[in-house]
Amino acid sequence: MRISDSALSQRALSIGEKLIEEILPIALRPLADRERDVQAFYHAYRLVAIDGTRFNLRNTGTINEQASKVACNRGSGEPAFAHLLAVVLVELGMHQPLGTRLGWQGEGELTLARQLFAAQDLPERSLLLADRLFGYPSLIWGLWSMLRRTHSHVLVRIKSNLKAKRTRQLADGSWLVEVKAVDPSTRKKVGVLELREIYGRVCYEDQNGHRSCLQIRLWTSLLDDTTSPATELIALYAARWEEELFFRELKSHLHARGELLDALTPQTAAQEVLAMLLAAALIAKQRQSVASAAGVEPLRISFAKVLHKTAALCELLQVGADLITPQALAQWIQRLLDDLIYDAVIKKRRPRTCPRTLRQPTKDWPKTKVAQSKRVVKTIEVTNP
């Protein structure tokens, strides 16, 4: 039976996004095993990250009435499309989504993050990684009781202008600090956080001797410098970039039909993104199975190839599952797994760097004319400004 887009949108509206949103904490469970998936853990802590991403909505009458067009950068003017903002909690090393909160009326990432953690806890014994947008004392203070309850910790990058009172320097060059937490609505002090502050420098040097460095400032609730040295934590923070790769998989592979979501209303757009997260969880489980059989890490398995094979299998079962005996189905799935083991394993990448340029520059960066990259050596230093 063929259904028009408008009829499908009306049926989806009758369900609402809240129902699917409430299903997510039940459906989205951590995948990594401490014994097998060591890349998904730091010591005994499960690595998770939180970040936000935007999805472009169509210019329908309903969307333009209900969704706000908020510029991503100050002074850039009104964008062409309204956005649906998603803040997503992801299990690193597996690219398994664990939870989300969505907004289309100008909510910020901090607001959605608070809503997410008010609705669900972190997995037991987690280490939460976050970038500078989430590195505020008020947010960490709001998570403090949950961190204690789940025996979890945070590792966040923070802005250079945030103030902290140093109390004691540790042997690895990091500092124990006291940070005042303020209620963002009343601007009144609500408590003092005891954290560890790490200043570091990550440098890259190519074979020609050219050296470039990145300054980084971190706060963490891991206070023991003997079990968690500063250089280890600086190197570990780079794992947060995996969430950006997860968003690329979500947008470029799972939703490969253009830059706009298909939905005609904000509510059905939210449903569409939630369904994409459920699909991403299914692919993460399939990648784990293939990786286990191939003897490699899950992220060494191609997301696109697993998606293609899984979608083909689902389509086959949707049309003719009643025609296939359980024995034949098991054999079919085993052959598909064997094919992915042979075809979907990604070779290890060499440590190389590309110049920071653009193919079609929108700013004053140089334009890329010839693709080039160089072998580099990375060094990590703890600094004391």
UniProtKB/TrEMBL annotation:
Q: Name the SUPFAM superfamilies for this protein.
A: Ribonuclease H-like
Source domain of life:
Bacteria
According to the UniProt entry, the coiled-coil residues are: none
Transposase IS4-like domain residues: 44-280
Q: Which InterPro entries match?
A: RNaseH-like_sf (IPR012337), Transpos_IS4 (IPR047952), Transposase_11 (IPR002559)
What is this protein's record name?
Answer: IS4 family transposase
Tell me which species this is from. Answer: Coraliomargarita algicola
